[in-house]
Amino acid sequence: MSRVFPPDFLVTLRGLIAVHQSIYARVPPQGIYFEALVEEAFKRIKKPFTKIEPTGRNQPRHDLLVEDTRLSLKTETGAGTDPDRIAITKLCTTEREPWTPRSLVARAIEHLARYDVILMLRAVWEPQVIRYQLVEIPVDLLALMQRAKFRPVGKRKGRQSLGADVFRGKEKVFHVHFDGSDGKCQIRDLNIRDCVMLETWDSLIS
Questions:
Q1: CB-based burial of residue 60 (10 Å sphere; 0-12 exposed, 13-18 middle, 19+ buried)?
Q2: What is the DSSP secondary-structure string of 104-130?
Q3: How does DSSP classify residue 58?
Q4: What is the pairing mode between strands 64-66 and 85-93?
Q5: Cα–Cα distances in Å, from 2 out to 39, 71, 77, 124, 136?
Q6: What is the pLDDT of residues 39-93, one digit of tens each?
Q7: Alpha carbon of 123 to those of 10, 25, 60, 86, 163: distances in Å?
Q8: Beta bridge partners of 129
Q9: pTM for the complete prediction?
Q10: What pLDDT score does 1 carry?
Q11: What does the mean pLDDT of the chain come to?
Q12: pLDDT band at 192, cuts 50/70/90?
């Protein structure tokens, strides 16, 4: 059982997502809407006066503080969502110079240090069904990018993107990409088996 996400939280959040789905059958909750559902789920299960505080919009910190736990909330709900491989399109933004692997990784690690847990809602699309996955992503797993060897990728003129496969021993665990055009740090091909699957369920598409 997850210390941060107990069974009553999972049941409550799943119910709130079902309410959203009853209104928006083909639009899974994303971004601030998912954040609002997570906040409401915690408020419903926690004792009165428990500290539950959202972060101001567009601030580079945790999305939600529950007691003393800093949460980062992510969604992956597009039609191309892979059931076994996780993609985080924006782990953080690292727009400042210098644009070097050491500086970029340092900023990403600094960002990861601002929260304790990553919770992601994923929607895998199948005929007439959305298969939801609620996943806890280990922060220390993503921090392995410190060991990666980066290379320029793509043919963009000007500031080039940088990418690297990240290994744990001889096992590739994910790919990290720093986009030269918008400064985003992206995670690709993160094996879902290296994360904690909290809940899965199917929702019929009406």
A1: exposed
A2: HHHHHHHHHTT-SEEEEEEEEEETTEE
A3: T
A4: unpaired
A5: 17, 14, 23, 23, 9
A6: 999 999 988 878 899 876 656 668 999 998 999 999 999 989 999 999 999 999 8
A7: 16, 12, 25, 11, 26
A8: 126, 204
A9: 0.92
A10: 57
A11: 92
A12: very high
Asked whether the beta carbons of 121 and 77 are under 8 A apart, the reply is yes
DSSP 134-184: EEEEPHHHHGGGGG---EEES--SSSPEEEEEEEETTEEEEEEEE-TTT-E
Return the structure tokens found at 157. Answer: 């003129």
For the chain, helix, strand, coil in percent to 5 are: 25, 40, 35
CA distance 192 to 136: 10
Q: For residues 20 and 14, give the distance between their C-alpha atoms in angstroms, rounded to a whole number.
A: 10
Residue with tokens 């980062």: 72
Q: Which of 45, 55, 52 is nearest to 8 (CA)?
A: 45
Place of tokens 């929260």: 115
Q: Could you tell me the CA-to-CA distances from 77 to 27, 89, 154, 185, 193 in Å, in that order?
A: 9, 11, 26, 19, 19
Is residue 135 within 8 Å of 86, Cβ to Cβ? Answer: yes
Residue whose tokens read 């990553």: 118
Structure tokens at 112: 């990861």
> pLDDT value at position 59?
60
